[in-house]
Amino acid sequence: MKRILTILSLQFAVLFANAQSQSDSNYSFGFKLLSVEELPRMLNEVKSSSNFYYPKFNGLVLKVNDNQISYRFQISNYKNDDYSFTNECSTCETVTGKYTDLNVKLGFERSMTYSALQPFYGIDLGYRSTTFIGQSKDKSTSAPLYNADLEKNGALIYPFFGLKYTALKVITISAEAGLDFLYSYDKEVKSNTSNTVQSVNNFKRWQYITKPLGLLSLQFNFGEN
Question: Which residues form the signal peptide (predicted)?
Answer without folding.
Answer: 1-19
